[in-house]
Amino acid sequence: MSGAAVPSEHTSGQGGSAANELDQAGEERLYRAMRHFWHPVMYADDLVDKPEAVVLLGEQLVLARLGGEVRCFSDLCVHRGTPLSIGSIDGDQLRCAYHGWTYGTDGVCTAIPSRFGARIPSRARLSVYQVAERHGLIWVCLEDPVFPLPEFPEEDMDRFRITRAPAYDWETSTHRRIENYIDVSHFAWIHDGVLGDHNQPEVNDYEVARHGGELRYVYQGQEESADILKNEGLLDSEESFVSELQYRIFMPGTVLLQQPMPNGHGYALFFGTCPIGPKTTRNFTFLARDYDLDDPEAADQKMLEYNDLVVNQDHPVVVAQRPEELPFDLTAELHIRGVDRVSIEYRQWLIQLTNELVPA
After folding, report:
1. Which strand ranges, in their side-by-side order, compose the sheet holding 128-134?
2. Sheet containing 214-225: which strands, arranged edge to edge?
3. Is 257:233 a contact under the CB 8 Å cutoff?
4. Which of 34, 38, 160, 354 could form a disulfide linkage to 288, CB 3.0–4.6 angstroms apart?
């Protein structure tokens, strides 16, 4: 493992400090470093013929379809500070609701109706941010991106049916939410009877590796019942099966979980987080399957009910964690080697990226 040293499993802190203490300066640097990554901010289908407001890392932004493409600007008319998200789209222009100022696809003001024909000041332009539409989501990067956009190959495979879950907000940090999503050792307790069994809580050994902008690992020996909602239509209801969970973590806040299923079938979850602020995260989920397709709409609903069940089991535990942010100091919380391998690797890489992007 690379990066910062990992404390032993018997270490509670460094220099006598209490466990779970937040390294405020380190966390602030980590938060600033997140400006250099792509984050999903809304479902693409929800952006239609009017501007929409979103918040990313505390920045109030406006999204609009102009000139046939999605554009992202600061949500603030330079004239009198009115949010452009309450304005309108006029052709390929974004029009402010207050005085009718319009802005083009490059964010430059194109018209000031109260002074028709007058020269437009050079300062009459919006801050423009990088934006992309991919995998059913709109992604924004506030500064130059370190890594490319995440991948969701099942989206382009005809055999898979994709179901979109409603977005939801949690009062926790993106990093806490991702760490919860990629951790298998809580299955036996939070998801007892669904994804795990409290009578068999042991976690098998696994390896974690970096690939480009990803962390990857495969967890072997995942045992599940055939009668849970996402597995219906695969086997007789009284049966169970053992499979593997293939995780691809696109740093810092998107996960693709692929699971080979019985009889050659496949299941996948594509999950992305938007850090609205340091302690608030918006979550986006797509579920993909190539089975239970005889009545696809009914099966879609079962998938959504299953996703809600798992999310609602996780929610009260994760939002109760303190601090809400992921401690930047690895010694602030205990780690169990092997069991917590992916969390350790995730935190180490976050620390390394932060030190490279926002030096102390």
Report:
1. 39-43, 137-141, 128-134, 69-74, 59-66, 52-56
2. 161-170, 280-289, 266-277, 254-260, 240-250, 214-225, 208-211
3. no
4. 160
Length of the chain: 360
Q: Which two tokens stand for residue 97?
A: 């609701």
Which candidate, 343, 351, 324, places its Cα nearest to that of 22?
324
Question: What are the C-alpha distances in Å from 236 to residues 9, 198, 245, 291, 295?
Answer: 43, 24, 22, 14, 18
Instruction: Please list the ranges in the chain whose pLDDT falls under 70.
Output: 1-22, 196, 237-238
Instruction: State which fold the 153-357 domain adopts.
Output: Naphthalene 1,2-dioxygenase Alpha Subunit; Chain A, domain 1 (3.90.380)
* Nearest CA among 304, 343, 301, 303 for reference residue 326: 343
State residue 77's pLDDT score: 96
pLDDT score, position 196: 67
Q: How far is CA 95 from CA 27, 70, 76, 138, 149, in A?
A: 38, 16, 11, 21, 30
Q: Which residues are paired to 59 by β-bridges?
A: 56
pTM (two decimals)? 0.91
Residue 222's pLDDT is: 86
From start to end of 57-134, where are the E strands?
A: 59-66, 69-74, 88-90, 93-95, 102-103, 109-111, 128-134
**Alpha carbons within 13 A on the beta-carbon side of 310:** 20
Q: Which CATH number fits domain 48-141: 3.40.50.720, 3.20.80.10, 1.10.3720.10, 2.102.10.10?
A: 2.102.10.10
> Tokens standing for 148?
């490319």
* Cα gap 164→43, rounded to integer Å: 9
Domain boundaries defined on the chain: 48-141, 153-357
**pLDDT at residue 20 in the model:** 56
Note whether 190 and 358 are within 8 A (CB): no
The separation between the first and the last C-alpha atoms of the chain, rounded to the nearest angstrom, is 23
Q: State the pLDDT at residue 155.
A: 96
Helix 174-182 × helix 341-357 angle, to 10°: 150
Q: Provide the pLDDT for residue 119.
A: 85
